């Protein structure tokens, strides 16, 4: 059983379209209720800190192999955690867009039971998915800058739990579909979050 954004146009089946449901305010529900803001946040965090980090390391390796002189300056620049965060997000944007346009999900979104598509069920085009990812980067995570992200994420959380949608989903006519969790998925997602926490702690310790 899957949950679809109640504020988005309902999917069509053949020539029949069901009437869209009224917005469901879940802002007073524990953990955001049926709109699953925390599930979406954790899925994005796991994606960026795993797949995104792998792409980040591959970029550094390719940069070092092809332009060793410039690579030294780049390596010094990303010692700044804010610059590293921004670069990591920028690397992830096209990768996420490609995955969403091909599969409607990403590795962590799949694990967390999340799928992104148009209301009729069609996948987003690469251009639409890239636009959505960029809007998340700006409106959701505040350009990857921690202080800015605090405010953008609070606003996004409030909007999602109150209206059931986000600015980036509305702008790209996308709906986010959530699968119902079973015990195995819940344990796997919990393990993934703890793995990322341990990984980030280890990387921070290694960088000191």
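-> sequence recovered:
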């Amino acid at each position: 059983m899957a949950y679809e954004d109640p504020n988005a146009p309902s999917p069509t089946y053949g020539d029949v379209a069901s009437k869209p449901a009224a917005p469901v305010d879940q802002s007073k529900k524990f953990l955001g209720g049926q709109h699953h803001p925390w599930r979406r946040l954790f899925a994005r965090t796991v994606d960026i800190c795993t797949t995104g980090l792998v792409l980040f390391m591959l970029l550094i390796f390719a940069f070092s192999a092809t332009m060793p002189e410039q690579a030294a300056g780049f390596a010094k620049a990303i010692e700044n955690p804010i610059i590293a965060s921004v670069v990591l997000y920028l690397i992830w944007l096209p990768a996420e867009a490609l995955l969403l346009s091909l599969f409607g999900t990403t590795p962590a979104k799949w694990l967390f039971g999340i799928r992104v598509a148009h209301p009729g069920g069609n996948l987003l085009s690469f251009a639409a998915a890239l636009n959505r990812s960029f809007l998340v980067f700006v409106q959701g995570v505040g350009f990857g800058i921690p202080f800015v992200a605090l405010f953008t994420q609070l606003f996004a959380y409030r909007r999602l739990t109150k209206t059931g949608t986000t600015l980036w989903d509305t702008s790209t006519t996308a709906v986010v579909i959530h699968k119902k969790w079973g015990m195995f998925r819940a344990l796997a997602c919990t393990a993934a979050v703890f793995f990322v926490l341990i990984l980030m702690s280890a990387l921070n310790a290694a960088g000191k």
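The CA atoms of residues 102 and 206 lie 36 Å apart.
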